[in-house]
Fold these 4 entries.
Entry 1:
Amino acid sequence: MDEVTGPAHGATATAALPVSARATLRDVARAAGVSHTTVSNAFARPDQLSAPLRAHVLATARALGYAGPSPAARSLRTGRHGALGLVFSEDLPYAFSDPTATQFLQGVAEACRERAANLLLIATRTGERAGDGGDDSTLGGSPALRDAAVDGVIVYSLASDSAMLDPIAARRLPLVVVDQPRLPGVAFVGIDDEGAARAIAEHLLGLGHRRFVILSLKLCPDGREGIADARRTAGATYEVAAARLAGYRGALAAAGVDPATVPVVECARNDERRARELLAPLLATARPTTRPTAVLAMSDRLALGAVSAARAAGLAIPGDVSVVGFDDVAVDGAGEALPLTTVRQPHAGKGRAAVERLGAATTGGARVLATELVVRASSGPAPTAGR
Amino acid sequence: MDEVTGPAHGATATAALPVSARATLRDVARAAGVSHTTVSNAFARPDQLSAPLRAHVLATARALGYAGPSPAARSLRTGRHGALGLVFSEDLPYAFSDPTATQFLQGVAEACRERAANLLLIATRTGERAGDGGDDSTLGGSPALRDAAVDGVIVYSLASDSAMLDPIAARRLPLVVVDQPRLPGVAFVGIDDEGAARAIAEHLLGLGHRRFVILSLKLCPDGREGIADARRTAGATYEVAAARLAGYRGALAAAGVDPATVPVVECARNDERRARELLAPLLATARPTTRPTAVLAMSDRLALGAVSAARAAGLAIPGDVSVVGFDDVAVDGAGEALPLTTVRQPHAGKGRAAVERLGAATTGGARVLATELVVRASSGPAPTAGR
DNA sequence: TCGCCTCTCTTGAACGGTCAAGTTGAGGCT
DNA sequence: AGCCTCAACTTGACCGTTCAAGAGAGGCGA
């Protein structure tokens, strides 16, 4: 038994309580001959009691098989959870396969670890949409969201009509939105998508390109893909895609290229294979005089699909066609993949910024992180007319 | 106001309570003129009250700005949290950059979504080791673990002397260990690492190889790397690495190759670049007659590093040297990377299995998932002696 | 020697839900 | 009519902590 030099605590733990029924703080107190508060302090505030008594309490707790203070009871009393929630637009499982999402997660995780907060991935069911209306849809919410014991929520890249936001607002949780949607009065972290898109389009225009294809991320969460007409692009609910599109088009228009003549190919998933399949027909167009000489892809993965499609069509990059991406999630691998011209954006930085923002307790306001145009080998001068 | 056909609930919510102090269930009850239980039922058990009354209660709740039932209070009463915890060996942030870990996470996330459970990533501080001793190290635990409001914990790939396990055991949480360490009485999900390693080594032996290098994942969490001597390999605390090593060596010994002559190069991180740097000196060895003809890498990433090192040394693959990996996390990318001979293991399947296991509430027992030897272009016949 | 302060520990009351066990009134069955 | 059942709601206790306030002992300066 531990040597106890403090006041004589007569009853030492061996009074066998049934180990089956989970011991509580009060059981430990009883067995150790102290008050329940003292036991609580032994765990949470060591400076509030003498070292020998603390040792005695801890030993008693161990002997009783006490599992430690219950997180639920603690949270109930203190109002804090020591965790923050994360909601993804996509199926949570899919997010783990997207490098932009995992890099973002990495940043979030770093910042969380620094402040010793846990990270609750909220398992949203897919296919929930706004406008289901009933009272319960917002106050009841999805069970995953309603049960989430968190001090705040980060929302990553949601469609502007997503049903996820209302329940969060209803629960009055501090909220930070990353990437999209931008909402008045809601803290935001993201980049200048339109500006970055404009810059990369201007890069291509500066190289002499005049015939483009835009390879777009999904514009709405409805799963449609393929050529997007004007109505569809105008009704986009994914603001990031809409902003990049606007950026591309703005640059083109300013250079005298009519955006209406530039096809927009929408990919429902940020996926190389699918991008290749959807783009292939456009590149396979026979005559070099009508074929696009540059592909504006909204992500590096889509860009790699474009590269693949171009090669399959026998086109040289950047000789026949230039391809630019977005994100700079280059596989730093064996270095064999074609280095992409792209927009570098701070994925992990967004994660860190989002966590900081949540801690700062400032409501509203946007934090716009810097991006950088990175020119590599996948873009080059437009082929000369005669070629 | 809502039309209420039920009993006459006189007081309708407009009696303005201060919106500042968060409304509770009882405030809503008072305002709606019903009992607190009825309000509770309105949220959690709609079948327990009439539809019109429920609508009235919900409307009142909304008017008061009630944030919905508190997760903490609910958990305290019910004893359930609707979430399960995940603990990683590495820094949590690092895990998101490792494809095996993200695929595993993907499986976990899928299974969680199916059972509407949230996923709590527990932010362990790095560098905690067993043997710090004090009572508090296990019962107090890291704050992240102590505060984790979860119904069970999945532990991914921990060193056998990791300090993470004791606090979990102390909290009496249901526990499933994935990959390592195997502990008596603790549920386990993993693969037959030794058998799979033996199989892939036998594949190379069957191709005539006799001179090998082993490119090992870290053997201990102490960050040491480079050539591992017998003492170090014998004292490995990462059981997976130890098992694969045993598998390789077993196959070699059985084929008459003395394992003691086979160098083991340990990489502290599962990282291509580092692997290349560490392996380069061994492959740069001048004479073809002493140079290894095959590299046994414990992961695909290490294997890619080996490929890179070999190419840098001017060696053809598999002409001069064969390289095999482990994991089969092939970049399904543009398809330009060299296709690796490897062991396919079900990363996502491990995640799903772990979640199932946690739900099954069976204590102990190992679930060993199948692996498959996948022969691709990175391995071939050993160069003939004269070459 | 007294008063006051500090250190250490105790007491009792929340925190905000859920659950088990009533209570009531309406309706069905004999 | 009388009895039983059932739906619809209420009552009171309880989950296991933390916190504010207080009490007793010992030390120290005045």
Note: Residues 1-19, 127-137 of chain B have pLDDT under 50 and may be disordered.
Entry 2:
Amino acid sequence: MAGAMARPKKAPPPAPRRRRTAEEARAAIMDAAERQLVAAGPGGIRLQDVAREVGVSHPTVLHHFGSREGLVDAVVSRALDALHADVTAALADASAGEDKVAALLDGVAAALSARGQGRAMMWLALGSPEPQRDDLRLREQAEAVDALRRARFGATGEATLEDSQFMVVLAASTMLAHSVMGAHLLHGAGVRGAKAPARFRAWLARLLVAHVERCGGATGQGA
Amino acid sequence: MAGAMARPKKAPPPAPRRRRTAEEARAAIMDAAERQLVAAGPGGIRLQDVAREVGVSHPTVLHHFGSREGLVDAVVSRALDALHADVTAALADASAGEDKVAALLDGVAAALSARGQGRAMMWLALGSPEPQRDDLRLREQAEAVDALRRARFGATGEATLEDSQFMVVLAASTMLAHSVMGAHLLHGAGVRGAKAPARFRAWLARLLVAHVERCGGATGQGA
DNA sequence: GAGGCTGTCTACAACCCTGTCAACAGCGAG
DNA sequence: CTCGCTGTTGACAGGGTTGTAGACAGCCTC
């Protein structure tokens, strides 16, 4: 014990110093920060925690991102871009089919829950009351849905666009809410079982398909 | 100026000291804390901010609630109780009618947005991945919906309960998501106008009613 | 009117977080 | 091999937060 105290002031072994490329370091730091973003929100990201998780000291994080805010911005941007890419991929995959709608919803749900992107979106929405970035491109998707319906049922009505928009909004709201509290809601309503979320998505898909089949290309407004 | 400096160490005018009853003080503090809860989440509640908003010093807050955590618990409990009461009232009001469903959704939306209770629920859900308190009593409501359907269409099928549960879950998810990011979603999808949320709720009501009319008391499972 | 219960305050202590600074140390270029 | 760029670090400063301690002061009771 006394022997270990040989160095009175220089203390512990200097610890081997790894040196990554700037890009590697940034990526590793952002990965850790993203996990914190999903778990605790943008306000919950702590430089010290991020640094510890990566295995560096916190000034290193500041060196790469300038400030805490810089880190948060970078992480949020990257997460939203990834989300957009995943959702787009899921939509492209399934939009060809007809009532592959269930598969489409499954794909979106997977994109939202894979790395907690749905939670991240919700954190961001809670943080800023005003609409901010149109990250989900809902408008494009509503127009795509509308086009599909017209192609299938003919352009019987013009007011239909809003109907398609509402369908997209409904699907998006539901998938987002479920990525955050799906388990709460299903369990709370008394629906049990590990496959409950999938059954719910399938049910929702049937509901949407039935709505389209019932209304065709015409608006349901006046009905 | 020099005359005002008469007291070298006791400084500013002692400031008139109001004395409330413990109950009044607790209520005022919880009101302020609730506003912060809605705006910044449970983790965003700062004793100093709460105290400043009420017009007291932060040790007063600690005196009444013991600790920050005590305050948060009290505020969360009170908010959830209020939400439950409001939602229950909205449901009781409208459940008598038939397709007063739109009015029912309006009532729930109002209960969720009036004092930000929907945002509060979302903050809490984000904070705890595991299902926690069954604050919305979704189970009861699903059973009520199921009972109504059976009363109206007869007990044609037994598997119907899950259908009703899903309807309630869908409505709840959507209303919750919209209380947080309804504006984002509608605006993002291209739906404009101050009455867009109300139109969306009316549309959702028609969708749900149509579903029930189409499926009656029998399950939509095998269809 | 006197006394006590308790709501309230000022001042202080301990902790945590972000950001700065000067110095150290890989790793590639010459 | 030497030099320099830059990723990396420990130490420190400044601000902010929760929580404590002791004194002050309304308001109710006797």
Note: Chain B has nine helices and no strands.
Entry 3:
Amino acid sequence: MNDLPAQSDDCRTALREQLRPELFRALCDPNRLTLVARFASANRPLTVTEAGTCCGVHISGVSRHLAMLREAGVLQATKQGREVRYELDCGALASALRQLADALENCRAVCCAQTEEMGNECCGSNC
Amino acid sequence: MNDLPAQSDDCRTALREQLRPELFRALCDPNRLTLVARFASANRPLTVTEAGTCCGVHISGVSRHLAMLREAGVLQATKQGREVRYELDCGALASALRQLADALENCRAVCCAQTEEMGNECCGSNC
DNA sequence: TGATTATTTGCGAATTTGTGCAAACATGCT
DNA sequence: AGCATGTTTGCACAAATTCGCAAATAATCA
């Protein structure tokens, strides 16, 4: 069933942990991406109302979008008086993306080496 | 309407180009992520039927999932006889993720510097 | 040619998602 | 307290997504 022996389980489980559907789910909507871009260039906390000006969505929809981005770890929220300040968790998002990139390439490297050890033809054209 | 002067347009448009909804759309489904993980550890081209064994989805659904991943640039396909060999474009995916991470942090750095030049309080708690 | 295998496509059903509106909730102000 | 402002939540509805099945397409083999 598996293509490689058990030793490569580590890199595979590491990769699986990085492949969080919630993150991509949060980032797959055009309006939410517009919001993310807005936060990235605003470079300061924005209220729901402020953030909402960048996409033509009703404020209630903006509220839901921001909540989803927060739950995915993309944004951080702090309540200040009656308004909520959302802020891009730039470091967290960037490092999550880099960790996923690393996990992908590590998985390939490890599995590739093991395939060679086994004396098989290796990795198709990507090796 | 914008928070910063025109000089920061470069990093913002660069970020917008990296924020492709199609990529995240392709990666937001659990079954498609299972397929991606399968390709990453298989480390060689897989046919539609081979790939499909990892998720309990009908072969026609697998075919559609793989096509979507291919259109998003995650997989590459080559037809060989009557079967189609799909392969993870590991380098392309990893570099796309890293470029997005870079664009995010660059956008923050540039906009952050400009905000300071303008003498305003800078960037909230993330600066 | 006909039979078999691999993949894709059309279709309909079930589910999820994005949305606006109205109401509720929370906070601050007079 | 009453009123205004900012945000969230319930609800309904349209659009999109996922899925399995069956039929169509493509390629191999007898």
Note: Chain B has a mean pLDDT of 89.
Entry 4:
Amino acid sequence: MTTIYDVARRSGVSPATVSRVLSGRRNVDPELSEKVRAAVAELGYRPNGVARNLRRASTNLWAVVISDIENPFFTSLVRGLEDVAQTEGYHVVLCNSDEDPAKEAAYASAVLTEQMAGVVISPTSTAEGVQQLAEAKTPMVLIDRRVEGVEADTVLVDNEHGAAEGVRHLIDGGYRRIACITGPRRVSTAMDRLAGYRSALRAGGIKYEKDLVRYADFREAGGFAAMESLLDLPEPPEALFVANNLMTVGALECLAKKGLRAPDDIAVVGFDDIPWADLVVPSLTTVAQPTYELGRTAGLLLKDRIASPGRPPSTVTLRTELHIRATSAPRKP
Amino acid sequence: MTTIYDVARRSGVSPATVSRVLSGRRNVDPELSEKVRAAVAELGYRPNGVARNLRRASTNLWAVVISDIENPFFTSLVRGLEDVAQTEGYHVVLCNSDEDPAKEAAYASAVLTEQMAGVVISPTSTAEGVQQLAEAKTPMVLIDRRVEGVEADTVLVDNEHGAAEGVRHLIDGGYRRIACITGPRRVSTAMDRLAGYRSALRAGGIKYEKDLVRYADFREAGGFAAMESLLDLPEPPEALFVANNLMTVGALECLAKKGLRAPDDIAVVGFDDIPWADLVVPSLTTVAQPTYELGRTAGLLLKDRIASPGRPPSTVTLRTELHIRATSAPRKP
DNA sequence: CTGTTAGCGCATTCAC
DNA sequence: GTGAATGCGCTAACAG
């Protein structure tokens, strides 16, 4: 392996000067600078990033800890983050936590031992890793979910407002008996979206009925089961609000299996888009989140946090957007 | 920061012994070993991964270079890879090349300077980065596409066979005038799938017509445009085979926009699944690739390559699976 | 089985 | 504006 010493010898300068040239310092004689560049080219020299990292006591890696890259919500978010990372000279390490606090903690640990420059994380329910990273003062941006007792930059969407908007849309369509499938009680997004559902009911003068709410696991199978259980009610709902994309898919699959159709048998609004929601038939009404923007914003916040670790944490809340499609068509008289 | 020397002092042994204990070497007195562990716990010591990497002249990072994580084909593949990486003690760095040889080359460069342990890569058309990595003898696994003149472990699917099976299914359904939308001429998968299309036609005694083939860019917009152009033919096709998932979506959107329906107006078979293909209406017949398995297999090959760099490269070809759904229903008399 | 020693490749003092 | 010297934290030789 050719080192900075080889380049120095070849160009007749000291290693220090080579280092200065390569890291783009101004105060180097242009003539020497040119010699160094020539030597670098001739030798095919490539700086050793690991050595640089050791010396600088930090790497150019960002970790992104999400529950599952196969969920399109996170896929697009990661893409947004990676685009920022690339322009800022960082690389993104992908970490699937699978909602498992132990995995989250393991990744947090890796972030620390590998001296990664920062972390973007969607916390699991107990947020073990988040606590660990907060204590170590690692530059960190929380996405999608809040964590009690942790002060950190955070990027959220307006869950309550978005959910309320989706449910209001159903109410406006003439539906009264509206069910809700939400996520686990310990997850802030689940509770916020449920709160939006309740506030929309209240605003519409509809009584909240506990029986019409299901707490599932944000996964496809959970949505399927919850839908089944709702259909088993003595008086099944006329409409349904589902608090995330995967559970919506599960619910739709359940309906399809039972030979029921949206919106004729039951109207549906889902939180969070799915890819090609237009192709699903009937096309699916969703409360869309700006997923790419979420990732991008997180990246920008992380960059700022690394540049000025001292400044107070900020929270950015992005807006959702109601995409009205076919599954929420107004009720027929 | 507490170092290995602090732990050594605290536990009354040498740094070398601490190192031995922490890297799980057998030949250490259990008693000393215990002392070391105690000291580690007391001091909250955490090894410095970067220093370890410098010393070992290698990191525990794998790069995965794909064109776009937002394509579900790659999403699932990356997940498969990450699962292997995790069990083998590696982390995965996500690199979106966007089919841009320059980006691919930039990432290849990063792999080298950051001393990553290995790479899994889906080559762009010119495969600049691949050449670079091959020269540097970086452990590398090619996925999805072959590259002429590069000897490396490779994971493919049987594109020609899968495409032929999909097209044969259309022929069996009574369709004769079958169009094909494939990818760029320089990409091996595009040509292999086209070859499968041709061989199925031949086997079915159908004359190959150049006019019924379109070369697009493997993206949604490309599929849309190609579909439009096919519909503009004096005598439009009765059926269509599309060589990847995104173009299939584009083609379906084009049909929807024109008020045409599959399979009544035109039957459709797409190569590569899309998420929730069942929910698309009419549900989409696909030649499904084992995407997760592709990633997993690549991970296993990479692990082996790192363990024994000398052994001759191997190519693994996985089977596709025809998922017959509604868009390819037999032709009505 | 354990300790001493050296050096991985670089960036940064500090002199000049 | 430049060079010599130092050490980041660890692991692998080697000697004992």
Note: The radius of gyration of chain A is 26 Å.
